[in-house]
Design goal:
Blueprint: H1 6-19, E1 26-35, H2 40-46, E2 55-58, E3 64-69, E4 73-77, H3 81-95, E5 97-99, E6 110-115, E7 133-137, E8 140-145, E9 148-158, H4 163-177, E10 190-195, H5 198-213, E11 219-230, H6 236-246, E12 251-257, E13 260-266, E14 269-274, E15 277-288, H7 293-304, H8 307-324, E16 328-332, E17 338-341, E18 345-356, H9 362-369, E19 377-378, H10 380-390, E20 401-406, E21 411-415, E22 419-423, E23 426-435, H11 441-458
Parallel strand pairs: 1-5
Antiparallel strand pairs: 1-9, 2-3, 2-12, 3-8, 4-7, 6-7, 6-20, 8-9, 10-11, 11-19, 11-23, 12-13, 13-22, 14-15, 14-21, 15-18, 16-18, 17-18, 20-21, 22-23
Helix pairs in contact: 1-4, 2-6, 5-11
The chain binds ligand ISJ and magnesium ion.
Length: 461
Amino acid sequence: MIEIKEDQIASLLKEAIEQLRTEDDRRLVSFTKKIATANPLQFFEAAKHIRENRAFWTSSSQMLWLTGVGTAFEMGADESRFEVIEAAWNKILNEAYIHNPYEVPGTGIVAIGGMSFDPENTQTELWKKFRPSQFRIPEFLLTKYDSSYYLTINVCVRKNDHAKQLAEELRLIEQKLLTERALPDHGLYIQDENEMDSDKWMDIVRRATEEIRKQNVEKIVLARELRLTFNRRADISPVLNNLLKTQPNSYIFAYEIGDDCFVGATPERLVKVEKNKLLSTCLAGTAPRGETKEEDMKISEALLNDEKNRQEHDFVVQMIKRGIKDYCTQVAIPDEPIVRPFKNLQHLYTPVTAQLKDGYTILDIVKQLHPTPALGGSPKEESLAFIREHELLDRGWYGAPIGWMDSSNNGEFAVAIRSALIQKNQASLFAGCGVVKDSDPQSEYEETKIKLLPMLTVLGG
Ligand SMILES: C=C(O[C@@H]1C=C(C(=O)O)C=C[C@H]1O)C(=O)O
Ligand SMILES: [Mg+2]
């Protein structure tokens, strides 16, 4: 392990501060060091009383863990969200002072964030803290990659800052964050459940199938919300801990804004880029798990051969293929999906691999792909128009890309499903399903019920 002397950060800060001309000038200083070990969840918990705005991420393979604490720099956008974020990101990277001797994805300057499902839909009070697009470069970032641990400290300095004093303040916070502590007890139970009348929701599904039969649109994904009230304010770290224990092969994420926290365990990758290697995933088509191994196999076999589910799935494959074609070379997509089992259900799954062409970024791909027909429908505009008019729901960040990107053009975004917005002693859970011409409203309703389970069970349901 390379030992880094604490005054190294002070001298980097000093150098950056001295470059600033006016009192309005700011410069991001980023300092990464390798540390022996640290538990990402305990780091998250330790931050609770130190800084607002925590973020948590583990990739589905658990190769990469990120815990972000505080905000060194924030990028947000309401309109032209991709362009605005990209411009802010490039500016900050161009001007930053970076000390990061490791070429490890997810270390150094990392922006963690997400976006709303549909910026054109009306935003309600529920999601008022979550902008159409928002990213944060955390002040403290713990990265676990493979079996190594890195701590990055990011600070936005100003002309009048005092380097030594600042370095000392950061050192004290770092110490507190790295002090191990027990996670609080869950102690959560549900006092009240509220959902839209199921008949009313199934009526909307019926209308969607009618629209599809009229050939105005081919697939429409419809979602619903379950609102819970608890006996007490929900702590986030035990929820994450339970998700880590119960939802293998999933992206486990949390994005906190003040008292609100968007949490989930999604199986769906939108896109990953590592050293120009691109991975995407087509995930659509669903069946329950069986009680026994034999039953499970039978259900899986039936899912693989079910025409309705194959159709749901194929819209996603075709769209992702079209979406990345101009941005990539060596696109490889198997002709047939496989069935991928998860804790509560199984999905049709087709992996996509490609090489990202030079000059493009992960944000370009996110912009091309979101929303895929796994969450919107097909064609995109027609299905979104139906959702806006009929769904009666503010999806907020549900169903939208959530993830991270670093200064070396690595990054990963998942589709934020199997998720909940937790607000003090309340939570809104979301689940949807792909409606195609042969959809049966009752079965679709049952499908959303299973999709609510991952979050419901860790929230005391
Ligand atoms: C919309 C959701 O999931 C999506 C819809 C699926 C389906 O209808 O078969 C399967 C996986 C996801 O693409 C959700 O979980 O809320
Ligand atoms: Mg489905």
